[in-house]
Write a structure and sequence with these properties.
Probably acts as a heme chaperone, transferring heme to an unknown acceptor. Binds one molecule of heme per monomer, possibly covalently. Binds 1 [4Fe-4S] cluster. The cluster is coordinated with 3 cysteines and an exchangeable S-adenosyl-L-methionine. Keywords: 4Fe-4S, Chaperone, Cytoplasm, Heme, Iron, Iron-sulfur, Metal-binding, S-adenosyl-L-methionine. Belongs to the anaerobic coproporphyrinogen-III oxidase family. HemW subfamily. GO terms for molecular function: 4 iron, 4 sulfur cluster binding; coproporphyrinogen oxidase activity; metal ion binding. Helices cover about 40% and strands about 20% of the residues. The protein has 17 helices and 14 strands. The two termini are about 35 Å apart. The protein has two domains: about 270 residues, Aldolase class I (TIM Barrel); about 70 residues, no CATH class. It is globular. The chain is α/β, with parallel strands linked by helices.
Length: about 400
């Protein structure tokens, strides 16, 4: 089950933001995230804010969901009404399994976002999907609704790995869904992989990489399995039914991914993400990493505008109830100080292939950067040009390098 939210400070009932937050909205880009919390079943490793039909009752909460999201969108329009009108550069629908909602309902929400703020003419509009939750007909309907990018949860091509992860699709379904997405007119398709699952062999991951590349996608994400507290997987590991993921194995898998993807013409642009060309990069995630603004719609969704971050209540019924009462669904928020925003810029920027300017580091961090170059953790040429950029060994130790550079 999803874990508890942090408390933060109270969100005003009308969702109002400080004047300084609204003043520069969209200066670094503006996006909309939509959280769809419904899943047919819960994967054993997942701690996302998701709910199965058995947890929500016969109606499953879906009948109220779209209306509530449209109400929150109306609230958002009021909150930002006196701000410079943002142009929506990206829309990202995540979950959960967004494609459990009918394409026409997702289309209603995208159209409402366009009516509220206006989609940029080149807006990136993405939906996540489980491979078994789409078919050629639904993909065509999504494409007609304005979606131009899709992210499919492949995870692995090995049946025994999918079984440990409690994934429901058969091993070949993800690559078949890629072909169907291309046929439907999607120009940008991502596959998500997970590595380091207990029982996964090196050849299993190599086969998954090869299948993903052969599918013809222009983007791949690869994440090390993390055993999150409260999940079914954590229970199995605690009982000794499965071994805990091994850090050395995860490092080997990452190096295998880098070698295979670079050899296939992909380039890394964020520690866990590779694209065939700059046009294939996920612009919505780049907005997160570069400190842009976004409004998060839906239960448990997080938002950020002008250094104010807030998060919605998690349960769909409570979310809908708040909005039906004319109140913000925000559970809590934090107003970041200038120093906190600077720290975030370094933490997120260092994960990118462009790195961060050395000038943004504290004096002690600049000295650590010089030492990290000597240790092979930062690239020497960008360092001479005034930037800190991780090397491949540095990417394996990204969190530790970041702590050092922040002093």
């Amino acid at each position: 089950m999803p874990g508890p939210l942090p408390d933060g400070e109270p969100v005003p009932a009308d969702g109002a933001l400080p004047d300084h937050a609204r003043a520069g909205v969209g200066h670094l880009g503006f996006g909309v995230y939509l959280h769809v919390p419904f899943c047919a079943s819960r994967c054993g490793y997942c701690d996302f804010n998701t709910y199965t039909p058995g947890e929500l009752g016969a109606a499953g909460g879906r009948s109220e969901y779209v209306s509530a999201v449209l109400s929150e969108l109306g609230l958002a329009a009021k909150v930002l009404a006196e701000s410079p009108p943002p142009r929506v550069d990206t829309v990202f629908v995540g979950g959960g399994t967004p494609t459990l909602l009918p394409p026409d309902e997702l289309a209603r929400i995208v159209a409402a976002i366009d009516d509220t703020w206006g989609l940029a003419t080149d807006a990136e509009v993405t939906t996540e999907a489980n491979p078994e939750s789409v078919d050629p007909a639904s993909l065509r309907r999504l494409r007609r609704a304005g979606f131009n990018r899709i992210s499919l949860g492949m995870q692995s091509t090995a049946a025994h790995v999918l079984a440990v992860l409690d994934r429901r699709h058969r091993p070949g379904r993800a690559t078949a869904a890629v072909a169907e997405a291309h046929e439907a007119g999607f120009g940008h398709v991502n596959l998500d992989l997970i590595y380091g699952t207990p029982g996964e062999r090196p050849e299993d991951f190599a086969d998954s990489l090869a299948a993903a590349v052969a599918a013809g996608v222009d983007h791949l994400s690869a994440y090390s399995l993390i055993v999150e507290a409260g999940t079914a997987l954590a229970t199995r590991v605690r009982r000794g039914e499965l071994p805990a993921p091994d850090d050395d194995v995860a490092a080997d898998r990452y190096l295998a991914a880098e070698a295979a993807l670079t050899g296939a013409g992909f380039g890394w642009y964020e520690v866990s993400n590779w694209a065939r060309t700059p046009a294939g990069r996920c612009r919505h995630n780049q907005l997160y990493w570069s400190g842009g603004d976004w409004w998060g719609l839906g239960p448990g969704a997080h938002s950020h505008v002008g250094g104010v971050r807030w998060w919605n209540v998690k349960h769909p019924a409570r979310y809908s109830g708040r909005l039906a009462a004319g109140e913000s669904p925000g559970h809590g928020r934090e107003v970041l100080s200038l120093a906190e925003r600077q720290t975030e810029r370094v933490m997120l920027g260092l994960r990118l292939a462009d790195g961060v300017p050395l000038a943004e580091l504290p004096a002690a961090g600049r000295a650590e950067a010089t030492a990290a170059v000597a240790e092979g953790l930062l690239e020497p040429a960008p360092h001479r040009a005034g930037r800190a950029v991780l090397t491949l060994p540095g990417r394996l130790l990204a969190d530790g390098v970041t702590r050092r550079l922040l002093g």
